[in-house]
Amino acid sequence: MNNTKKPTGQMMDLTSGNIKKQLVLFSIPIFLGTLLQQLYNVIDAVVAGRLVNDSALSAIGVSVPIYLLFVSIILGFAIGITILLAQFFGAKQFEQIKRLIATMSIFLLALGLMMAFGGAVLAKPLLQLTKTPDELLEIACIYLRVVFLGIPFSILYNLLGAIMRSYGETKLPLYALVLSSVINLILNVIFVKNGGGVVGIAVSTIIAQAISSIYLLIQLQKKFPMTIPKKEDWGFDKGLFALSLKICMPIIIQQLAVFMGMLIVQGFINQLGNPNIGGMTAASRIEAFILLPVQAFGNSLSIFAGQNIGANEMERMKRGTRFGVVLSIVVIITLSAALLLGGKQILGLIIGNNKAMILSGYSYFKVCLWFYPVNAIIYGLGGVLSGAGDTLIAGIYSLASIMVKMLVTILFIGKLGLLAIAIASCCGWCVSSVIVASRYKSNRWQTKSVIKTI
Q1: CA angle 114, 119, 123 (to 5 degrees)
Q2: What is the pTM of this model?
Q3: Rounded to whole angstroms, how far apart are CA atoms 23 and 18?
Q4: Each residue's pLDDT tens digit, 168-200
Q5: CA 295, CA 276: separation in Å to the nearest integer?
Q6: Long-range contact list for 340-346, CB < 8 A, 24+ apart?
């Protein structure tokens, strides 16, 4: 029997009210949170490079991709859980919400412990597999083993953040991330100045994650008590777990495909010489920031779609989709124009006065910036499809994009150099957008609603 009582916290019910105002207000905290996560990832590298030494910076550099491979699995589960919870919230099925939270908490706790200790054991073999230089192997291994021990806190933060975002609450996860970033920076400096080295940097990350997780847990208990499982609610619901895996696995595959594709393409870039490596490194950092707004709109549309589909407000969901995609296109066109006019100056802020690297990075931008608006369709419509429960399409278009990028890169890297990487990226985006747009127009995703399968 469904509990129709509403939680006492302040939530954003996206199933009624002004669509445009709701989507904009809902997207801003998500955008700021994603932006802060990008900056968060830079803090450790800056502290290591400035306050320790170049070896510490390089050790973190070779360790982070391995760590992110594990984190991508966590993020896949977090996105999937958000979709399920948003649909349950839209349908006001609070008993289902409590059972899902209880089930996935049990599973993710076990997964977190396995990842923490498994990652610590596999740290050295994984570093050797990625051909880490011998002079960096031990220090990188120490750093990786310590940060792996903090994975349970990363899981807790992402789970609590998923719960809150599905209710329309995006500010509290942002506040938690701000708190975590400040604590991480302060502890980094304190530990490193007292001889902590890379171990101090890793421990700072764990402590910051733990504090932000505890903050979110306290806020959840305080503001959303009606959705917290009580003693009698705790149990493992096999049906909900199977449904969760069905939703989450394509997203996890998508996350892993994107990550592995980036590693493979980076291998080709590494063959083009230092000016191209440096230019492309700077360009990719700027590109990540350029695409942040469309990613934020996509995440917002995913939750918006989930709630409205759960409430059977299909026409409202479609109106919100049109607005979100159009606004996203306008924003990305504006940013692309700024990049066209000031791309060299922006690259110079990162690279300095190295003209060869700046020209290399700008040669990539000159091609790609014309295709950045395509990403508004990918993230916007892709977010809606995921929010509807049609997550398999996420794995399909991601794998198709990666395969196209790899094929174009292999065929033309020898003749065109870095230009081949740019063309490959644009081709991959175009293929993804066609797949996503075709799926959305087909309306077959409307049968994927979680509510209709229970």
Answers
A1: 165
A2: 0.73
A3: 9
A4: 787 888 888 889 888 988 998 898 888 878 888
A5: 27
A6: 340/365, 340/366, 340/369, 343/286, 343/369, 346/286
